[in-house]
Amino acid sequence: MSIKIVPLGAGQDVGRSCILISFGGKNIMLDCGMHMGYNDERRFPDFSYITKNGNNINEMIDCLLISHFHLDHCGAIPYFTEMVGYDGPIYMTAPTKAICPLLLEDFRKITVDKRGDSNFFTAQMIKDSMKKVTIINLHESVKVCDDLEIKAYYAGHVLGACLFKITIGSNSIVYTGDYNMTPDRHLGAAWIDKCKPDVLITETTYATVIRESKRTREQTFLKKVHNCVLEGGKVLIPVFALGRAQELCILIESFWERMGLKIPIYFSTGMTSKANNIYKVFINWTNEKIKKNFVERNMFDFNHIKPWDSHYADNPGPMVLFASPGMLHAGTSLNVFKKWAPDPKNMVILPGYCVAGTVGNKVLAGDKIIEIDRFNKINVNLKVENLSFSAHADAKGIMQMIGMCEPKNVIFVHGEKEKMKYLARQIEDEIKIPVYYPPNGKTVTINTKRNIKVDLSVDFENSIIILRREKRIKMEQATKVLRIFFLSLLRMSR
What we know:
alpha/beta; Metallo-beta-lactamase, Chain A; Rossmann fold; seven-stranded mixed sheet; globular; RNA endonuclease activity; hydrolase; Metallo-B-lactamas; RMMBL
């Protein structure tokens, strides 16, 4: 059997994750995301790859699997279903289904209502697309159609994130989406059994990074924040509304409690209360410590972190603000950054990956003058820190995932080409398995070995044994008899 994999997004790039796999006569789409670095049609995956020959989208795609709620993995769902016309099954976990429409609507408001972008989905389209979703539970095997079966595994990363194993007959593929092999303050580590798939499709956001210990990163983060506010500065921490935001809020809340600090901490998104309710409902997706203490205290009910109001940005004195989105490409985080960036007393801490083309990426590159558009420029004088709290697997974690499931082939997606190339060489040298990292629109074809089950009759087996005992034929001759027999079976099966 041949397995074909083609990225429609996230091929040698981070953004608009969308991988099309074809094997066993079935076509499965893995994620359907949006690119945060573009404001035109390039923000969505290239679905014309599927429909370019006049193909009907519903005849070409058997199902869509969504790994988690981040917009670079789910942001194009309403566009794909309501504008392109896909009407087939969509699978995701319950937390992903609960959170996904909230983030989609939040981004739609920024994109359409505030910026006036066209060719974008509506609020009703978001609701209609979610009606097509079927929930899949962890470790649940779901038969989609015929012999196509899917199974979800815990991925860490964010609440509800999962890995998918897709099986057709004796062949299987594992798709990781985004995952984290290190447990943190509110989530556990990714896990999958030793399923030995034909192909592992894995993210490679941090393919060349081996992070320092989590404890060291946390201490550095708290020290930077503390020093800045003690000197009267304001600290901006761009985060996405759910995920790293909760992780860092738990960390800074406990530090403020220990130190007895009264300096205000704010959280910008209006989804704070909704997020808390979601975490309460899906507390079983968090780690053991959060679950154990939940009855006595909900770790997501913060005493020191208050809701943000836009006029606070002009208040004198120190403060800390968690503001979305995480790449400074729009919304509150960008608006506040414009105001605070010129003052060298202030600081911005970017705790995650920033896609090329976003303001966050330019800030990390050290740009001192950043053009937002033709009419707006930002003078960047504040202190810039990049402390990675991103819940992606680093190079060590990617190797751990490969060792955990033992694939026969590996496909890299959701990463940068040169970093993929470097890690691919390491894996091929050390583990001796083929690694591919195709760009968008390029198909990789992997031919799998065909397994033929042969039940030898007892008489045939006994005949070989008797001949060997009586020394009427040598071992080489017995082997030759068996080889001829198996070759004849193989010819008959073709």
